[in-house]
Structure formats: C-alpha cells, structure tokens
Specification:
- This protein has 11 helices and no strands.
- The protein has 217 residues and is mostly helical.
- α5 runs parallel beside α8 and α10 packs antiparallel against α11.
C-alpha cells in the first residue's frame, strides 16, 4: 500500500513540475508577444518594461526571471520569430533545385512567412531602430543576415558555374535578390494607405526581371 501511495505521489509531483514548466513557457511567450506589440507601437527607445509587463499581464519583476534587460528581450524576440525561418533556409537542399526555383521559394517565404505575419513588424523595427541602436542591428546581422547571405552567395555562385545565370552579378551582390522585399517593408509602413502594394505580384515581377517571364507551360 505504501509503495502505491509513493508512486502516486511521484506522479503528482511530475504533473506539478510539468504544469509549472508549461506555465513558465506560456508566460515567456506572453512577454515576447507583448514586447512585439509595445516595440511596434512605441519604438525600442520609448518602450518600458513596465508597459510590456502590463500588456503581458505579469508583474514587472517576472520579466527579469526570463530576460536580463530590454535589449535581451528584443534579441529573444528576434530569435523566437525569425531564427526558425533562417534555420529552414540554411538546411534546405538548395543545390538540388534549379536556381529560379530556389529564388521562387525564398520569395514565397518572404510573402507568406514574413510579410503576411507579425515577423514583418520585427524587420520594420530593425530598419527603423537599427541606425539609433547599432547593437540591435549588429545582433540581427549576426543572427540572420550572416547566416543566410553565405548560403545564397554559394548557391548563386554554383548557378553561375552551371550556366544557370548569364553573369555573376547576383552571386557578387545577393542583396539584389531581397531588395524588393526591403522596399515592400518600407512602402507598406509609409505609403500603404495612399497606394496599397501587391507584394506577391511585386516579387513575381522581380523574378521575371531577373530570369525572364515563365512560359505558359
């Protein structure tokens, strides 16, 4: 009987631990979501951790259980929202696909997984706040750009070697591939109310400029 009671107590203990971990995870996610809202509305400088805590429904001290300061909270926001996409791109078997297909996949990721989601707000924050807060820009460069750019450059160089591209311009400047994406982010933030932009059509047009229009077949 005592053995059964001991096992039952152990199960209850494990259940409490699991519930505690789940609760901590939910609070952490709530803080990150609230931080994105506050940063998007107020900017990095004007956002206070008090405001983040209030929006997340937690005490300000709770934030410090998860994040050292506002900068580390912003960094974790980037990791949580953008890094999974970076990992997917860097792990994809890009060498096995035609270069136009590779670029089309990257364009689709931007339209569907960035521009069509709250990740768009993260990139806007980097564009707007990076010049005033170089450490944020440096972190984003290391966490995202420095991981993706070599992959793109290597695949584009391979496309040049294979004769898939008529020149090495894209291999030398992979930034040309994402230039319309950056422009779309800026445009949507500044001019969307005056002239909405069809971002999917924009990216298709960009591909046609780079590779020529696809045939009907």
């Amino acid at each position: 009987m005592a053995h059964i009671e001991t096992k039952a107590a152990a199960r209850r203990g494990r259940a409490r631990q699991q519930a505690g971990r789940q609760g901590r995870g939910e609070r952490r996610e709530a803080i990150i979501a609230a931080a994105l809202d506050e940063f998007s509305v107020r900017g990095f400088a004007a956002t206070r951790l008090d405001d983040v805590a209030r929006r997340a429904g937690v005490a300000k001290g709770t934030i410090y259980l998860y994040f050292r300061d506002k900068e580390s909270l912003f960094q974790e926001l980037v990791r949580a929202m953008v890094s999974p996409l970076v990992g997917a791109i860097t792990a994809a078997p890009l060498q096995d696909l035609p270069i136009r297909t590779v670029v089309e996949l990257i364009a689709d990721v931007f339209v569907n997984e960035i521009f069509g989601t709250r990740r768009k707000d993260v990139l806007r924050l980097i564009i707007s706040e990076g010049p005033r807060f170089p450490k944020l820009a440096e972190f984003y460069y290391r966490e995202v750009i420095a991981r993706v750019l070599p992959v793109l450059r290597a695949r584009l160089s391979l496309a040049v070697d294979r004769g898939e591209l008529p020149s090495d311009a894209l291999a030398r400047f992979p930034q040309l591939l994402v230039a319309p994406a950056v422009m779309a982010l800026v445009w949507s933030g500044l001019f969307e109310q005056f002239e909405p932009l069809d971002v999917r059509a924009l990216m298709r047009a960009h591909l046609d400029v780079l590779f020529g229009e696809r045939s009907a077949t």
